[in-house]
Design a protein that fits this description.
By secondary structure, this protein is mostly helical. It has 20 helices and two strands. It is globular.
Length: 529
């Protein structure tokens, strides 16, 4: 017995040491694991699949994303946490790094559903543009896995890692069109600006850790409530710097400069992916660090985000107004600047949460779900039109109703949803919800700025919609620069592109018919209080 005492004592000491062991709930992390695992399978399979069967990799990726989305169903109760520290004093919700709560599940559904639509659009693009299939699908799935991890992250280290896992593959996806100068230039701009923003955010996280001694969001919140006076400036600087990286991902002004060139240079499905999933990543991170980790400094980030929201929606809409109908890539640039303007609307409820509480976040989530469906739908129709008119001019859509009536009706519906006009009821209700969040928070001036911008945006959305139904011109030759490699005129309507349009249009129609399916998230907190 005397021999066993030191061993027992050592075991007890190890058991008492906090933070040495973490629990793992495999069901909770299934959406992320399934997506990442399928990505690895595709990468390895690419080594053995013959060239003529490379399209099979795309369908494996589509099936994997569908399975990852379906894996959210067993988690719908929203009551699971994992990667929790164990030991004395650590068994509390604030010591968990991953939470499958309602907020995380809703955003994961948005991310994985959006990635699924992107994959459908990419099946034809990868084959016809002769992109390296294995690399493309691995990068897309890797980025989707990082984007799905981020909303469930509950510590600053996991947040930054998830942000970079979602971003780094996106750089390569943007530059996937080899030999295309615009694609290479867009990837380089995206990479350099994103890396700079990430470096600033990491410095902010280090400042916050120095001030609070923790990285878990709830514990950071407690630590910031009791920061010593000599560390207050350090903590305030950390809060501000941490927000920079997430503001870059949301394309908030003045961190928006990469958007137009990146969208133009990227393959069209990738541009759609960045406009929806890229923004979802940024807004999710922004929500988590502001309303969970930094509520003690709401007097710092609240007014700052309100100003960013006003500047972002104003500059985005003003730039969208300037797009010429005959300019090559004008349609993509209009969607790019429109996404900047929409980012301003999405920032409003986060700014309102500084004074009105975290319940306001539901408005951002509801608006993001609407925006994801209709914006991906718009890019899907753009991908269809680009098959015969690859210069992506707004003028190319003139008379689309006479050529492709169903595609024209779908695009018109998507544009009306973005504008917030009937029959796009979900767009109207989402804007009203965001507007109400500003009023409830006492941000009357921001509500006025938003109302003015909504009216301004009506012009370019309705101008594009009107083009769809005008009398088509004669068979005019496309002018301007030559179409990029892999984007030459093609015939036929690939069924995966049709499926993407139908899927997004059906989602938008269902939400317009029953907006409470989304807007109920705006009436209550998505976070456990």
């Amino acid at each position: 017995m005397t021999v066993l005492r030191p061993i027992t004592s050592a075991a007890a000491t190890a058991a008492d040491a906090p933070g040495l062991v973490q629990s793992v709930d495999w069901l909770a992390i299934a959406p992320v694991v399934v997506t990442a695992a399928v990505g690895l399978i595709v990468l390895v399979a690419d080594l053995f699949v013959p060239e003529r069967r490379k399209p099979l990799l795309g369908w494996i990726s589509v099936a994997g994303l569908a399975a990852a989305t379906a894996s959210l169903l067993p988690l719908r109760a929203g009551d699971r946490t994992t990667f929790c520290l164990t030991g004395p004093g650590t068994d509390d919700p604030g010591a968990c790094s991953y939470a499958a709560d309602h907020f995380a599940l809703v955003v994961q559904f948005l991310v994985l559903g959006g990635a699924l639509v992107t994959a459908l659009l990419s099946v034809t693009t990868v084959r016809e543009a002769r992109m390296p299939a294995g690399e493309y699908w691995f990068l897309l799935l890797s980025s989707a896995a990082g984007a799905a991890l981020l909303p469930a992250s509950r510590d600053l280290a996991t947040l930054i890692v998830a942000l970079e896992v979602a971003s780094l593959p996106a750089f390569a996806l943007v530059g996937m069109r080899r030999g295309d100068r615009l694609s290479s230039e867009a990837a380089l701009k995206f990479f350099l600006s994103s890396v700079t923003a990430t470096a600033v955010s990491l410095m902010g996280v280090s400042f916050v850790y120095a001030a609070t001694g923790s990285l878990h969001l709830d514990r950071v919140a407690d630590g910031l409530e009791h920061v010593p006076g000599q560390l207050d400036t350090l903590a305030m600087a950390g809060v501000a710097l941490t927000l920079v990286g997430f503001a870059f991902k949301t394309a908030a002004v003045p961190f928006h400069f990469w958007v137009p060139d990146t969208y133009v240079g990227a393959p069209l499905p990738v541009a759609g992916y960045l406009s929806v999933i890229g923004k979802a990543v940024g807004f999710t991170g922004l929500i988590l660090v502001t309303v969970i980790a930094f509520p003690a400094y709401s007097d710092v980030w609240g007014p700052g985000l309100a100003v960013l929201a006003a500047l972002t929606m104003t500059l985005g809409n003003a730039a969208a107004l300037r797009q010429s109908a005959d300019r090559p890539n004008g349609a993509v640039r209009l969607l790019a600047w429109s996404s900047v303007g929409q980012a301003g609307y999405l920032l409003v409820p986060i700014a309102a949460a500084a004074s009105a509480g975290r319940d306001q976040i539901g408005s951002t989530v509801a608006y993001a779900l609407m925006y994801a469906a209709v914006n991906l739908g718009a890019f899907a129709v753009a991908a269809l039109v680009a098959r015969t008119k690859p210069l992506h001019r707004l003028a190319d859509y003139r008379g689309l109703y006479a050529e492709r009536p169903l595609a024209a009706l779908a695009l018109a519906f998507f544009l009306l949803c973005l504008a917030g006009l009937p029959p796009g009821i979900i767009g109207l209700f989402a804007k009203v919800t965001v507007f109400r969040s500003a009023v409830d928070a006492g941000l009357g001036w921001l509500a006025v700025v938003m109302a003015v911008n909504v009216v301004v945006a009506l012009y370019y959305y309705l101008r594009w919609t009107a083009l769809l139904f005008r009398t088509p011109e004669g068979a005019a030759e496309q002018e301007g620069a030559a179409a990029p490699e892999g984007a030459k005129p093609r015939t036929g309507t690939p069924w995966p592109v049709t499926a993407a349009i139908v899927l997004t249009a059906a989602t938008a129609l269902v939400l317009s018919g029953a907006p409470q399916l989304v807007l109920r998230f705006a009436t209550g907190s998505l976070f456990p209080l």
